[in-house]
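Hi everyone,

Forwarding the result from last night's run.
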Amino acid sequence: MGAQAAASQFLFIGVSTGASSIQRIFPRWMRILSLDAELVGVDVPLRASAATYREIAVRIRDDRRIQGALITAHKIDMLRACHDLIDWLDPYAEACAEVSCLVKRDGRLLAYAKDPLSSALALDQFVPERHWNAKRDVLCLGAGGAAIAISVCLAGPSQTQGLPRRFVLTDILPERLDSIRQVHARLEAPLQFSYQLCHSATDNDTQLWGLPPGSLVINATGLGKDAPGSPLTDAARFPPGGLVWELNYRGQRDFLRQARAQADEKRLHIEDGWAYFLHGWTQVVAEVFGLTLDAALFARLAAAAAL
């Protein structure tokens, strides 16, 4: 006889879900949380059809075993295709026009954008207090869902962090730049945004020129995980004393390799996407299962994930 099926399911909607570390981590978390739920991966190619996203949303809504879902790489397209199937959006989902978490509650399908909070928690771990007081910039390569979340996060200054001098976004698709520009217009934030259409890695290299020392450079393109390569060429030069954030925690991560090659010369502080991954997942798991995620519980889950 086979193993008894779990009482409930948690969907993971991504591109290559089977390769994610969450496959080994999720069962550990369920034991810690005393929950009987299994992770079900749903692989969807980037920029899939609206019909594909709608079929998944209907499945979540109608299957009694499914408690909710985490969405990665499809956050904007999912909400755009399924807006009429969703009963409620949280303020971040409204502002960012994306969804990273779907929850069924009392017969209603609820949508959350958890990434602005996850971004803030991850940034707090490596950006020094009052870092932005020195008029430093952010260069975000890629203008998809992660870029939206990080820009919304940094547009709302905390007491200690303040605002970057400028937030520059690049992308190969003009429609993505148009979409994120609309998000920022709704924010009415004092942060200065700049939108650059860059057709190649060489174009992205030029955006590094003139960045003030200590500026933050982010790979939010998915290159290095969802697709091979880097948004920069090996000739790119990071700003002195810069912060470098590779959002990918797995894959070839050529961007990370490029930064490490200049780490000593440029005095770079380099972060990968592991903390971002953990905060993103724990926030969604807590929402789907109605848990209170405090610092102590996060520490337990993070320790279990590192085993």
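The chain has a mean pLDDT of 93.

Cheers,
N.
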